[in-house]
Amino acid sequence: MNESTVMKMKQMKLHGMHNAFMTAIESGKTDHYTLDQFISMIIDAEWDERHNRRIERSIANARFHYKSNIESINFDQSRNIDRNLILRLAECSFVEKNENILITGSTGVGKSFLGTALGYQACIEGYKVSYFNSAKLFAKLKMAKADGTYLRELMKIQRQDVIILDDFGLQSLDSHNRIALLEIIEDRHNSGSIIVTSQIPVQGWYDIIGEKTIADAILDRLIHQSHRVELHGESMRKKKSINKG
């Protein structure tokens, strides 16, 4: 293969193919392949390169607040985490089924870490994911209503396969936030998944949402076909602080 062809690979952005080809040339391993094997090798390298770039873009677009993955989850018995359930959820069939995941527990027990790990895994599986701190999302949507971009923001959320609402329920919802949450939930009903993390047990969400009719509508859609994980144990942040000391 001449220099012109190598240059064309770069210009066509066939980076995986180019790198695999150059590595084979520089290592002197080209004679180890038949023609079919060599073509297969450089095509596989290009496929892997593009696949990895898609995952990296998906993770960047998700804007996770934390770095976590399934392999880093602490399955200590005291935390009340069902390993089999989490590993099944990590297969991401819950996304295909438009199911939700509700993660509750006291502060510091790892709710956000677990929710993010499942979102991260969904990115790896090729799904579009967005992470939101709940309070900041509601504040953003309230501003969007004022400047006329509210529907555009809702459409961005609707296009995601999975959204993560982190730290839900730290403060009661006012009428604007209540309606915004209802619209988000309705848009995703049977067409997307939601991962919610909260310090408040699920039975306490009625009071957080307020307005019984709207709370019933939201929670009926959110809780139906959901997986619930209630974490126990000491604060993981406190444990890390003690270990550092």
TrEMBL record:
Belongs to the IS21/IS1162 putative ATP-binding protein family. NCBIfam families: IS21_help_AAA. CDD domains: AAA. InterPro entries: AAA+_ATPase (IPR003593), DNAC/IstB-like (IPR028350), IstB (IPR047661), IstB_ATP-bd (IPR002611), P-loop_NTPase (IPR027417). This is IS21-like element helper ATPase IstB. The lineage of its organism: Bacteria, Pseudomonadati, Bacteroidota, Flavobacteriia, Flavobacteriales. It comes from the Bacteria. Residues 97-230 form the AAA+ ATPase domain. Keywords: ATP-binding, Nucleotide-binding.
